[in-house]
Design goal:
By secondary structure, the chain is an alpha/beta fold. It has helices at 51-60, 62-65, 82-94, 110-116, 131-137, 142-155, 173-185, 202-208, 222-232; strands spanning 2-12, 20-25, 47-50, 70-74, 98-103, 121-125, 159-165, 189-196. α1 crosses α3 and α7 crosses α9 (222-232).
């Protein structure tokens, strides 16, 4: 089976545990106003690879993965090509490579459920804690993401919950308290990552000739994310 891939990072350290081979899938069903990868949106873009080609490439880096690392499928939205992703994960598991999925959690169909059967960890981008913000800033309802997290809990799949902290949008104590509640209710969430909003992607929007909806907002600081971590861990 083949699928469309935007780019590959051979040895990444920020998308899942340990050192990882990160594959950014092409295509996204959402339009987040804070998106730092608008060049992954178009389903027709990127380059075609077979699942075998991706696996062969990942295997070459296996010695760097150690006990924690492995492969991460990110995007874009990897769930749009769930069968392709599943084949990669199946092949990687056969080679003893840990599998990690970075997703917005906005799609849950039979193909996605099959993919989750061969997923060791999910990095779930829980972008906001209320429905209004989701609809306004992402383009889907929070119910989809909630249902996805419930399913992960049911299947006992470990989750790293991630949220980009955007000044004046979700950098509030209220949001942190809500996140803390969500984490408490789902024991499968064993890690939380608050990622400071950055605008290094502005040049991508300029090159593509499209408007960056959150381009006027300030970047977040480590002090801001630290303060929110304090609430979440309290
Ligand atoms: S889900 Fe990810 S790739 Fe898609 S629009 Fe949102 S931030 Fe961008």
């Amino acid at each position: 089976m083949t699928g469309r891939v935007h780019s590959i990072q051979s040895l990444g350290t920020v998308d899942g545990p340990g050192v990882r081979f990160v594959v950014f899938f092409q295509g996204c069903n959402l339009r987040c106003k804070c998106c730092h990868n608008p060049d992954t949106w178009d389903m027709q873009g990127g380059k075609e690879y077979s699942a075998q080609e991706i696996t062969d490439k990942a295997v070459r880096y296996k010695e760097y993965f150690g006990t924690e690392g492995g492969i991460t499928l990110s995007g874009g939205e990897p769930l749009l090509q769930a069968e392709f992703a599943r084949e990669i994960f199946e092949k990687c598991r056969e080679k003893g490579i840990n599998t990690c999925l970075d997703t917005s959690g906005s799609i849950l169909n039979q193909r996605v459920k099959k993919l989750l059967e061969v997923t060791d960890r999910v990095l779930l981008d829980y972008k906001y804690t209320d429905d209004v913000s989701y609809r306004e800033n992402v383009g889907c309802g929070i119910d989809k993401v909630k249902a996805f997290l419930e399913y992960l809990q049911e299947k006992n799949i470990p989750v790293t919950l991630r949220q980009v902290i955007i000044p004046t949008v979700n950098d509030t104590k209220e949001n942190a308290f809500k996140l803390r509640e969500i984490i408490k209710k789902h024991p499968i969430v064993d890690k939380v990552e608050l990622l400071p909003f950055r605008k290094i992607c502005t040049v991508k929007y300029e090159n593509m000739g499209i408007y960056f909806p959150f381009g006027h907002l300030p970047e977040a600081t480590a002090e801001q994310t630290d303060a929110l971590y304090g609430i979440i861990n309290s």
